[in-house]
Hints:
Distance between the termini: 26 Å
Shape: globular
Structural class: alpha/beta
Helix content: 25-40%
Order of helices and strands: EEEHEHEHEHHHHHEHEH
Mean pLDDT: 96
Strand content: 15-25%
Low-confidence stretches: none
Number of helices: 10
Largest sheet: 8 strands, mixed
Radius of gyration: 17 Å
Number of strands: 8
Strand order of the largest sheet: 1-2-4-3-5-6-7-8
Amino acid sequence: MTTTVSFAVDSPFGGRTAEVAYERTGAGAPLVLLHGIGHHRQAWDPVLRILAAGRDVIALDLPGFGASPALPQGLSYDLRTMVPLLGSLFDALGVERPHVAGNSLGGLLALELGREKLARSVTAFSPAGFWTLSERRYAFGVLRAMRGAALSMPMPLIERLSRSSPGRTALTSTIYARPGRRSPDAVVSETVALREATGFRQTLEAGLTVAFTDDVPDLPVSIAWGSKDRLLPRRQGVRAKHVVPGARLVRLPGCGHVPMNDDPAAVARVILDTSR
């Protein structure tokens, strides 16, 4: 069940109130899940049941995505804003230094939270920020094209495409290696989430200057990459290992950029091993 929490944040124009939607389930050590740009918390649905057996799982809709409203006026979507904002969110949820797992943008945020000592462990799946200039240009071009397609397609067409395996492939093969496994309802929901993401443009713009170049010492870190990631090539994982030498680098055979649906068991295992 979706719940919302409101909490105070600072801005250049004084105090503001942010609101975030989330789902919380399970029992154990707190584990926060962060999705990628244009997606929503339901990206983690394939692994929730496995994780909830041993963790207090909190799956978020990042501000401006899913059911979470845009950031208040005066707040940007850059890392300098988002990382302390997530720290304030953790306080509002009553969790201190949770384990954090993230995918793509969420993976970058998870690593930043670890670097700022706001996370107890970090599991990052295809995290952003380890790209070359040309790789970033390619990824952002693909993301803009996906957003444009989602905005241009009428709902009857999205629904019709979702009902067949070729149609689901057309809609989601950029992020999934096995798009036919995604349910029609899930494909419609995430396509709508992409077209309605109020924070998409500002988040993408903030990413133009992002490069993750600092180590994340003194806590467990796993960086996992799908062997069939079509958005951020897996060679970026080798660069990530050089930047964070203490991290465990995990290959996910047969998985795409968003691996939770391609191989839920493997994804859950990496998270649970890291967050012991």
